[in-house]
Design goal:
It is a single chain. The protein has 156 residues and is of the alpha/beta class. Helix content is 30%, strand content 34%. A hairpin with a 2-residue loop joins strand 1 and strand 2.
């Protein structure tokens, strides 16, 4: 828990193999960090455990974006390709706009997929228009229970 970026630790399991200890641990981090940042946190947790406990020879670190003991599970939600196909079908009225997208980030949290849509800065027409677009995209997803919030960001 002393490693920067670790919010909490749970589901710690250890076992002995001769005179060595093996450990598995779930580490909760901020829900929207990058995969690479989560990976770096897991490496730091692994090294910290090995440094602090001489007998520990191997540590498996599972990164969680939320407390999986409390949050609704994301089991059964579609993976990226299927989720994007469903989004494009539901958002077909927005096809010209979506063709301009820079990126779509999917966050699997609290039993739903939350979407971050990144559009070119050249499409930005003010905060009011951006909020209206978010509202329309979210409204189009009302019947799609697997999807949660939508956030639109504009970047160069």
């Amino acid at each position: 828990e002393q490693v920067d970026g670790v919010a909490s630790v749970h589901m710690l399991r250890t076992r002995r193999q001769a005179n060595l200890a093996l450990a598995d641990v779930h580490v909760q981090v901020a829900p929207r960090i990058s995969v690479s940042e989560g990976h770096m946190i897991s490496l730091a947790v692994e090294q910290a455990a090995k440094d602090e406990i001489e007998e520990v020879s191997e540590v498996t670190v599972h990164i969680d974006p939320e407390d999986d003991l409390l949050a609704p599970p994301c089991d059964g939600l579609p993976l990226r390709e299927a989720a994007l196909q469903r989004l494009m079908a539901v958002w077909s009225p927005f096809a010209p706009l979506l063709a301009e997208r820079r990126e779509i980030l999917l966050h699997y949290l609290s039993g739903q997929i939350h979407i971050e849509l990144q559009l070119p800065a050249s499409l930005y027409q003010g905060a009011e228009q951006a909020a209206e677009l978010e509202r329309q995209l979210l409204q189009a997803l009302e019947s799609e229970r697997q999807f949660g919030g939508v956030a639109v960001h504009y970047r160069p």
